[in-house]
Amino acid sequence: MLLLPLLSLSALWGFVLNLTMGDAQSLLRANTLYDTIGAASTDLGIQLQAERVRSAETLTTRKQTEVLGGQRARTDKSVADFKQAVTDAGGAVGEDLSRSVDNLTIALDRLALIRSDIDNGISSRLVGLTEYNRVLDAIFQLYDHLISVSDLEIFQQASSLQAMGMAREYIAREHALIIGALADGRLTPSETAAFTEYAASRKFLHSRGLAGLEVTLRRPYEQVFATEPFLTFATMESRVIKTGAPPPDADAWHRAVGKLTGRLDDLGKTSSDTLAGRTSQAATGTVVEIGIAGGIGLIAVLASIIISVRFGRRLAGELAGLRAAAVELSRRRLPDIVARLRRGEDVDVQKEAKAIKVSGSAEITDVARAFGYVQRTAVTAAVGQAALRRGIGQVFLNLARRKQGLLHRQLALLDGMQRRTHDPDRLEELFRLDHLTTRMRRHAESLIVLSGAAPGRAWRKPVPVIDIVRAAVAEIEDYTRVSVGTMPAGAIDGTAAADVTHLLSELVENATIYSPPDTVVQVRGDLVSNGYAIEVEDKGLGLPATEYARVNALLAAPPEFDLADSDQLGLFVVATLAQRHGIKVLLRRSPFGGTTVIVLVPRSLVSEQSALEAAGGDGKAALPSRTRKKALAVVSSGTHAGLPRRVRQTNLAPQLNKESPPEPEREQAPDPAERSPDEVRDLFSAFQRGTQRAREEASEEGP
């Protein structure tokens, strides 16, 4: 199927290339020759003209000068550059051009003999200059063979410019004769005849060149011929022919020739560049022709391809449809299903795992059916994983709720036991057991948070920040190591008070765990423009910078809870609570070497002190009795075996207080060892009654 189209295409391409490649090669060859041999030979001609002028002075005065020596060195360098350019041109040098190059090379080899005759005084002035003229004639013959383009218009313009360049050479020959004649003030008859011949050739070449140039190339030459330097030169030229003597004003001759040759050299370069640009455009046109021919061949190739791969195109279309379906499945449908499952939405496997609909050959439909199986398996696995996560979360929640119920019952029993017990040692043990039960309740609430549910504790009124901090400190084991600094007045919205307390207790407990047991954990706060900032600072070893960055990233955007990462449950709880209320938590290294945790409660959750007071009371009813009892223990002036040190009968009603107010010295917490059994009994009775009153106030507040 491909043999016949390929044979036809080969024949067509052979015919087209036979028509177009010859012209393209000719133009490309011309550009190569212009950039190599053309540029080098032009510089060589300029150097030889300059050396001829200096040699004319030496032929007249018979004195060698340093100027002539320097010019000969520049000429030798130009000769070397020309020979290198011939080597660089390589295959672009054809048979006809090769003969011209060889003739010029032979002429250049005679330079040493020409210079020797001049230096030894063998050659006369006209003979020496004629030898240089022969070398330059070989250069201009080379120029004639450089013009080898097939474009007739470009060839004509190049020939005309060649004539103008040769005319410039005859002006240089006239100048060389006059330079020598000005040195001794005369022209020999043979020199006058040669000058007249040069002038006639110059006029002929100018007329020929102007006639062949088109308007854009001819006009600049006409402008030069109308200028003062050319007119002065032509006048003095005619006078030399008539009188047979050199111009009387040598300076005027030099000025006229210098200006004229300078303008002609610049104009020749500009015209050559313009013609080179046209040659390049012609080459481009030829390339376009080749492109058109190639396009026709390409059409033939496409026709052959269409005939040979029509079944392949259909297969490609079927594969494209299958690919689109697979891309939609992997980039849109499955990620969307996973996102919905993470949001807790129900997903119907039968509905979502729809079959991929493609048409085509049996192989394509088989692959589509396999993708359908993969899709159903992936959706089923995702749904199963989501159900497993929800089940685990529900297990967490059920266990936590049951544990909460048991802990509440245990706390109620402890309260009853405390009310019925008057033994100080027994009360101390009950108080510690009460404290452990409170911590267990916080851990149960952590399970509720990880399950995605919200704890049941909440208050209608704002809760003072100081009470929240004290309650948080009271819920950790080493609460005696925590120092709570002075905090500005402020309150947290009652709906978020329990979560903020839980969040702070996790952070404070973490600070006590990862710091030496003999150090103090500082807790301080301040009311800022964006809300309320609470700092927890420990004196531990701190963390590496990378670990701080990792923990802060987790706190800023908590990922889905991973059961395998059970060592950081506290961080997940803090991150979840912070995200729930828009709280910002940041860890950084403390100036003292430990870690400082900054908790910024947003302004939307913070109430001013005036609003708190308007709500009624001093905020004592905001926290439950048990939390208040331990919070007071944290900030009391002293402790006795971990218990708060109280002042007797402080919490009694006025009508029950039958004793006189204590002396100031009695308020300084006397030594427990000096108390009598009656005082100890009264102390714990007062503690029991205060606890009962706080419980009653909390019951009135309600969750």
**Helix segment tally:** 21
Arithmetic mean of pLDDT = 76
Distance N terminus to C terminus?
Answer: 88 Å
Strand order of the largest sheet: 2-4-5-7-6
Question: Helices, strands, pairings?
Answer:
Blueprint: H1 3-61, H2 66-89, H3 95-109, H4 111-119, H5 125-146, H6 152-184, H7 189-212, H8 215-225, H9 228-243, H10 250-308, H11 310-342, H12 349-352, H13 362-420, H14 424-450, E1 463-464, H15 465-474, E2 482-484, E3 491-492, H16 494-513, E4 521-528, E5 531-537, H17 545-556, H18 569-581, E6 584-589, E7 595-602, E8 606-607, H19 609-614, H20 625-634, E9 639-640, E10 643-644, H21 677-701
Mind explaining what this structure looks like?
This protein is mainly α. Helices cover 70% and strands 6% of the residues. It contains 21 helices and ten strands. A five-stranded mixed sheet has the order 2-4-5-7-6. Strands 1-3-8 form a three-stranded antiparallel sheet. The protein has a two-stranded antiparallel ribbon with strand order 9-10.
Summarize the structure.
The chain has 703 residues and is mainly alpha-helical.
